[in-house]
Specification:
Elements (H helix, E strand, L loop, with lengths): L1 E5 L18 E4 L11 H9 L8 E6 L1 H13 L3 E5 L10 H4 L12 H15 L4 H13 L2 H12 L12 E5 L14 E3 L6 H4 L1 H13 L2
Parallel strand pairs: 1-2, 1-3, 3-4, 4-5, 5-6
Helix pairs in contact: 1-2
Amino acid sequence: MDLYLLPGLGADGRLFSKLELPGHEKHALDWPLMPEGSTLREYAEVLARRVDVSEPHALVGVSMGGMVAQEMAAITHPLRTIIISSWKGPHEMPMHLRLLRGTHAEKLLTPAFMKRVMPVVRYQMGLETPEDIALFDAFTAAMPLAQLRIQIAAVLGWEGPVQPVQGLVHIHGNHDRLMPISPIKGAEVIRGGGHFMVFNRAIEVGSAVYKALSSI
């Protein structure tokens, strides 16, 4: 089956480089350049054009990619939608992030601010090895700061899908610091998994994804 993989905020298809799913064809969808004020639904509309809807397919999204995958599901009608280290709606956001909704906090992102907060961000992301850090830093270097602001604003402004996605599978790590598991309901838990687990715990995550695909 065709699997369309959506990475997290500021990331790209390299996030899935260790994810092995035998018998399935992986297609990583990198983020398009979007104008200021774009919503996650508008990201979904652009990315849906890259999906061959004439063939059976599934959507697999990480973090922001999981939110966009839920919006895309209403357009491409996948056989399965799988979200990893993500939210099903703003009700699963931790309180400190819900309080940022509508504040335009993304405007604080300047090169100097990013440099100061990067150690905290790396910790929140659950980076465990030099390889994790190198990949995350490569993402940061490749993503224009203006686009990062647009993505953050879109995530903070997301209201969730219009209709809950049927057959949605949610996979989440119980050590995720960026998106804590406590407000999240109905997820398959990866013990010890952090926010970067699709890369640094790819075997366990891949097994959970494969199981979800096998149950179609």
